[in-house]
């Protein structure tokens, strides 16, 4: 069992109570889009909430918006987003079939990794998104997203290639599309991971 950001009962109950304040994802968006909890609010162009099917069984979680995402207010719309679209299409899904978001809703300057205090400020929005969507499967893209959500420091080699059970979700970790663009030799591993996701989804759903 992986470590959990919702690990103790009091945390889980508090999270459910927070989610109960919102009618649906649209309500959550309206109440979160002007967030100023961290310094990233000062430099963002757009709060990148996420998009997709609010009743999906699969939530795809990346690290943070990039320049294109910040400009358009949508997740994964740059080069890595186009690759993500192709990856999903290869296993029979479209963007409209899943929900795509990031652990951080605002772009860190120069695309640096999110700082710990920024993650701590933004994670409650992701937690509530998951509570409202109630997916069965999480696809975590990249080490930062995986280490943050699973609350560990394990390497990609230790995390990917298997189904993890975490906080009621089945979790699959694979490479971030941006990493695949830099390291095309990792695409074979990503293909194995998403085929596993498709097979697991078919068996489960």
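^ structure tokens above, recovered residues below v
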């Amino acid at each position: 069992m992986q470590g959990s950001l919702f690990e103790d009962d009091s945390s889980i109950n508090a999270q459910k109570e927070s989610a109960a304040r919102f009618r649906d994802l649209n309500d959550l968006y309206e109440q979160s889009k002007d967030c100023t909890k961290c310094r990233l609010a000062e430099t963002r162009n757009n709060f990148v909430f996420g998009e997709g099917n609010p009743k999906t069984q699969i939530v795809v979680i990346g690290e943070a918006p990039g320049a294109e995402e910040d400009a358009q207010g949508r997740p994964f719309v740059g080069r890595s987003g186009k690759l993500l679209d192709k990856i999903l299409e290869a296993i029979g899904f479209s963007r409209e079939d899943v929900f795509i978001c990031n652990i951080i809703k605002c772009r860190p300057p120069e695309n640096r990794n999110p700082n710990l205090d920024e993650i701590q400020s933004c994670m409650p929005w992701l937690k509530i998104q998951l509570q409202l969507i109630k997916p069965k499967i999480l696809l975590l893209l990249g080490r930062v997203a995986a280490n943050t959500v699973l609350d560990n420091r394990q390497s990609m080699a230790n995390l990917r290639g298997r189904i993890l059970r975490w906080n009621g979700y089945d979790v699959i970790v694979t490479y971030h599309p941006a990493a695949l663009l830099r390291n095309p030799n990792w695409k074979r591993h990503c293909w194995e991971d998403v085929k596993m996701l498709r097979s697991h989804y078919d068996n489960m759903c």
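Residues 93 and 109 are 32 Å apart (CA to CA).
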